[in-house]
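Escalated from tier 1: zinc ion holo job.
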Amino acid sequence: VKHVNQFLINIGSVARHPGARREIKLQGQLPDLRISFARVEENEPINLEAVLEQVYEGILVTGTLLTRWHGECRRCLGPAEGDLSADIRELYAEGMNDELVYEMAGDELDLEQLVHDVCILSLPLAPLCRTDCKGICPDCGVNLNTENCICVKGIDARWDKLSLLAKQDEN
Ligand SMILES: [Zn+2]
Ligand SMILES: [Zn+2]
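Tier 2 regenerated the structure:
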C-alpha cells in the first residue's frame, strides 16, 4: 500500500508574505508511532489544528495535536488507553541545518515528521489502565482489580503468627 502523506500542505498564500497567517485543520494517520508500552494505532485519526505564520526566520507553526493512545498497563498488563494531546510551536525554515528547525521546500510544508515527533514524545512512558490500578499479586499472579487473592502478606502474616502463638499458649 502506497503511503499518502496527509500532512503535506501547500502554503503559497502564506510563504514569503511577512505577517501572513493561515489556519489549518488536518486529519491523517501515521504508521510506526510506538514506544515500549504505548502506541498510536495505524488507523487512529490524528487531528492537527494550527496557525501558520510567516515570520522573519520562516514559517511558525502553532497549534494543538489530538489523538488516542493504546498500550499495556504497567501494573496489571491489561489494556490501557487515553487521550493524547500536545501543544505545538515549531519553526520551519528553508535550507537551514539546525536540528531544532524543520526544513521546508518551496511552497510545500511537510508536517508529517513534526506530527510523528510530537506523538512519540507525548506517548506515556508508564501507562496505567486507571490511576488506582491495583496491579498483579507478586506471589500468586492474580489481577487484584478483578479478583481477591488469598495470599497472606506483610502485617497480616505477623498477626497470624501472633494468633498461632496465642493458640499454643491456650493448649
Ligand atoms: Zn492496570
Ligand atoms: Zn496473591
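Residues 74 and 126 are 6 Å apart (CA to CA).
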